[in-house]
Amino acid sequence: MKMTYALKTLRSSHHGASAFIRSSSTVAVDQQTLAKVRPFEEIPGPKPASMLGNLWRYLPFVDNWSNMDFLEQQKHLRAAYGDLVKVSGFPSGSDSVFVFNPEDAQTVFRNEGKWPIRDAVKSLSYYRTVLRKDVYHGIAGIITSQGETWQEFRSKVNQPMMQPRSAKMYVTPINDVAEDFINRIRDFRDNKNEVPRDFINELYKWSLESIATVTLDTRLGCLSPDMKPDSEPQKMIEAVHVTLRGIYELDLRPSLWKYISTPMWRKYVKALDVFTEVSMKYIKEAMDRIESKPADSMLERLLLSSDDPMVACVMAIDMLFGGVDTTSHSTAMFLFNLANNPKKQEVLFQEVKRLLPESRSQPVTMEIFNEMRYLRACLKESMRLNPINFGNLRRNPEDIVLSNYHIPKGTNIFMCHQMMSRDKRHYSDPDSFIPERWLKGSEDQHSAHPFTTMPFGFGTRMCVGRRFAELEILILVAKIIRNFTLEYNEGDKLTIECRAINTVTSPLNFKMVDRE
């Protein structure tokens, strides 16, 4: 699919170079140091079988790994082997190390190198660079590219996406989408003020509508009451679900997709085809609008940052893809934590009411948003308890030492921040929702190691969409709490499956009662 764009005219009114923030340079471990530490082979971990490594543990009726999700596997490994665990023959195809200690996580991040490697989505890389190279023209995107190729791509998108002023530009459109969603809640509540049990799908629609507004400066109509189940936005939502499930099955569990066309691989490709086709249609329409009438969309800013329009197109696809399930499930978990902690919810309501005193529909401005300190503390605490990801992955570019063990260059290292964040060694009362941990000057302010809770990652490869995700979630939750008293009718537990991301599987049976 060929994309063209008249960049010269637009560039005449914009200035600025792409920014690339470098992390600490890699510190190589010398031979004298290695002689004093324990060898890699002695790291505790499940015993591998000859030829199969630990893949045999996924065989039915042999071990129970096949029935565990990714978080359950980590809990098993931590309980059995301690803070540093080696798993030989992991589905990634190489030896892997699981880290449950923030000191070790800091060492990994501080020595990740100039071009951090996060080699976890080979299936998506193959789809873009081999199977559909005619569409992507060799541009793998920010999720799957590595090394200097990744750095070149990231440097082109950093300035439009990572600067604080970038998010400021989209406060009003994000607020408008949130206000429309509040009105939708009033429409689909029943006579008991309860939202549908499949409320998560309504959050999917809101999150897609929000990120499309930022990325393309357009409304897709996801919040229309008559949106059809076979509409293009709903097809995009379903495609994201299948793709994330595919990443988990194809890349994080044993799979033969590299050798034969498995059923999961075929579903995965079909879902990606649908998402790519629909996304590119919307992107092309947005580009045509920009040519005739420039608009300050993220797509336009991305086009201005690169000589290759496909860089902007692929980044726009990644934004649309990454902005559906991640934002919606993070919001669902946030609302659950507030509903089950009514005293904290009341504190939040008092802050929001003080800052939005005029009416329940008063817009959130950037000035007001910056004053919502307790709201941001609540989100940080929710992400500590229920992050969207289990943690972070890196492949070390040089030998390093973790917990006095030698970790050779090229080892896949899983930093299990979700488990660290619930560890009583790092947080008092770790299973309780205490937003005050994150407020400076509070008697409950936490003093945990800074690399314990890392919901957006760290360094040059931290989440590029962080500012927009936080903006969308915080504005929506502020407006929900300003409008409704929030209750949850399914008890104090939320069922979450750790797949490619943490996914809420409990019915979201919220009760939302209008405030006076």
User: In total, how many beta strands?
Assistant: 10
Helix-strand makeup class:
alpha+beta
Largest sheet: 4 strands, mixed
Are there runs of 5+ residues with pLDDT below 50, and where?
A: 1-26
Under CATH, the topology can be stated as Cytochrome p450
Query: Termini distance?
Result: 53 Å
Domains, number: 1
What's the shape? globular
Please explain how this structure is put together:
This protein has 20 helices and ten strands. It is of the alpha+beta class. It has a single domain, classed as Cytochrome P450 (Cytochrome p450), CATH 1.10.630.10. The strands form four sheets. It has a four-stranded mixed β-sheet, with helices on both faces. A two-stranded antiparallel ribbon has the order 4-5. It is globular.
Defining key terms:
516 residues; Cytochrome p450; four-stranded mixed beta sheet; two-stranded antiparallel sheet; disordered N terminus
Ordered list of secondary-structure elements with their pairings:
Blueprint: H1 7-11, H2 31-34, H3 70-81, E1 84-87, E2 96-99, H4 102-110, H5 122-131, H6 133-136, H7 147-162, H8 164-168, H9 171-188, H10 199-216, H11 232-251, H12 263-292, H13 298-304, H14 309-322, H15 325-339, H16 342-355, H17 366-371, H18 373-385, E3 392-395, E4 400-402, E5 405-407, E6 412-415, H19 417-420, H20 466-483, E7 484-488, E8 496-498, E9 502-504, E10 510-514
Parallel strand pairs: 2-6
Antiparallel strand pairs: 1-2, 3-6, 4-5, 7-10, 8-9
